[in-house]
Specification:
Number of domains: 1
Helix content: 25-40%
Strand content: 15-25%
Shape: globular
CATH architecture: 4-Layer Sandwich
Radius of gyration: 21 Å
Number of strands: 19
Low-confidence stretches: 523-531
Structural class: alpha+beta
Distance between the termini: 39 Å
């Protein structure tokens, strides 16, 4: 039913600047990051500011209760770095007792057997120790120029105003309303009057604003072992989570070198073996071995792309011993500054609104990353105390050539992330497309699931040829469902220093922003109605 639902074609223009650009899934977050560039910060300051700001404008995707990866390119010493701030299971977890299998419950989004009452998906039992605050703050300490109090400034302004509720926000809330209604604090925030919040208002975040102010004043340690940590641990215990104060205090960000691959003379720096990076590199290796770019973009190139993606997914599924993820909600942003530093950052609550739990004392919306783990014993992703998430689709990637970063790209959308990120990188490196051209170009989606999805904008001739080789799903690029992922990317021309940024053309609230002081959007403020 997705072949001809919408009767328009939407494209976006890339934002260009000499001073750096931030691209994100919400324009206000991109502007928050761009404000750091205007204040003397670098790409890391910009990325962290944008990441925190997403908690106040795109809370259903990510926030203080989330986890993820950041890939950093340091222009001065021409080195790449990865910060892994993935979630960790509590030490006292008891898989058999806490997550009994129930054949009456459908398989989880990761393809694992269903658990009684969906305890690994919804509610306090679905929460892992969140790494976002530790990881983002660690990035500032290691690579940024500005302090956490400065970087959190735009987020605090946005949180004080409240969540801007437009039709897109209403859609996101409505899609998860039944599960949000199970948690009193979540329902109070997102379901005023017991129904999804209507557009044209700002939703107050309750305790979250004070939490952000405390974080800015006291620093990240207070989140894991100080006053905030005490409140977080108390709320989690009251809700039935096995996470305790010791689990929070023990959390650490892992820093390591990127996993790298080569393609058409460029080096691809990815988030490492537990991310979608190995699949991206394996797919690009297949493409380079089989594709002649001189033949142009056509059915042959799309077949090679699909074959490479399917092959990489097959290897991945065999490696981790599970079937593939079919849902999930995440956020990706990319940043570049005038000096050529770059960041690709992906983080998530996992599902839309994560566990659908808001901690009453802090206002933090929590992840449901327990569902990353297999409730059955004996698999690489099986549950164990203090085990870190070790298999993710997130695929933040930075490409360099001759020691200079040329683009950073990544995406949200579970299984769709790696195929999307890989194709954008391939279109730029195989055929010389600009970032704007690659992000707007119609794509396919393949993950060794028995069929290949194609965007009808590829044209009848290409679709007819591909149908000779694959079972096809012809589906448009839509706002919802997001069937081709949601990419955000930046690029830089080393010769001119001009930077560009762009977000997915089907993401109505996403965008890119050039370096400029951060101000709240006056037009939105006038339209909005404060509760």
């Amino acid at each position: 039913m997705n072949r001809s639902v919408e009767q328009w074609v939407v494209e976006k223009k890339a934002v260009a600047s000499q001073g750096g650009v931030v691209a994100a899934q919400h324009l206000l977050a991109a502007r928050a990051g761009a404000g750091m560039l205007a204040s003397g910060g670098n790409a890391v300051d910009a990325a962290v500011a944008a990441a925190f700001a997403l908690a106040a404008v795109e809370p259903w995707m990510c926030g203080l209760g989330g986890s993820g990866y950041m890939v950093v390119w340091n222009a001065e010493d021409q080195t790449g770095h990865v910060l892994d701030f993935q979630g960790v299971l509590p030490a006292a977890i008891d898989p058999a007792a806490d997550y009994p299998l129930d054949p009456a419950v459908p398989d989880s989004i990761m393809g694992f057997p269903g658990v009684a009452d969906r305890r690994n998906l919804i509610g306090y039992g679905a929460v892992t120790v969140p790494g976002a605050v530790k990881g983002l703050s660690r990035a500032l300490e290691r690579f940024g120029r500005l302090g956490l109090d400065t970087v959190l400034g735009p987020t605090i302004q946005l949180a004080e105003r409240g969540l801007p509720c437009d039709w897109f926000t209403t859609l996101q809330i409505a899609l998860t309303a039944a599960d949000l209604a199970r948690d009193p604090a979540a329902a109070a925030t997102y379901l005023p009057g017991g129904v999804p919040a209507a557009p044209e208002q700002f939703l107050p975040f309750g305790a979250l604003t004070e939490t952000l102010k405390t974080l800015a004043h006291s620093g990240p340690d207070c989140f894991y072992s100080g006053s905030l940590g005490e409140r977080i641990a108390a709320d989690l215990k009251a809700g039935g989570s096995r996470i305790d104060a010791d689990d929070l205090a023990a959390y650490e960000t892992v820093e390591h070198a990127p996993l790298c691959g080569q393609h058409r003379g460029a080096v691809l720096h990815t988030a490492g073996p537990t991310s979608g990076g190995p699949r991206l590199i394996e797919t690009l290796d297949h493409i380079e071995a089989h594709l002649d770019p001189a033949r142009g973009i056509g059915a042959e190139s799309w077949k090679i792309y699909a074959d490479g993606l399917n092959k990489a997914w097959r290897s991945h599924n065999e490696r981790i011993g599970r079937v593939t993820e079919v849902g999930g909600c995440t956020s990706h942003l990319s940043a570049v500054d005038a000096d050529g530093n770059m960041v690709a950052l992906t983080y998530t609550l996992l599902n839309r609104f994560g566990s659908c739990v808001v901690l009453p004392q802090t206002g933090i919306l929590m992840n449901n990353s327990v569902s990353y783990f297999d409730p059955r014993p004996g698999f690489p992703t099986s549950m164990a105390g203090r085990k870190r998430i070790n298999a993710s689709n997130m695929c933040p990637t930075i490409a360099t050539r001759d020691g200079e970063a040329i683009f950073a790209v990544g995406a949200s959308g579970a299984n769709y992330i790696m195929p999307c990120t890989t194709q954008i990188a391939a279109l730029m490196l195989d055929f010389g497309l600009s970032l704007e051209e690659a992000v707007n170009h119609p794509r396919i989606d393949a993950s060794d699931r028995g069929s290949v999805r194609v965007d009808p904008r590829l044209g009848d001739e290409i679709i007819a040829e591909l149908s000779q080789h694959f079972e096809l799903e012809v589906a448009q690029l839509l706002v919802y469902p997001k069937l081709y992922s949601c990419p955000s990317g930046v690029s830089r021309d080393p010769a001119t220093g001009i930077t560009h940024g762009i977000n997915d053309p089907s993401q109505p609230v996403g965008g890119a922003a050039a370096a400029a002081p951060f101000v709240l959007d006056d037009e939105v403020t006038e339209i909005g109605v404060r509760p």
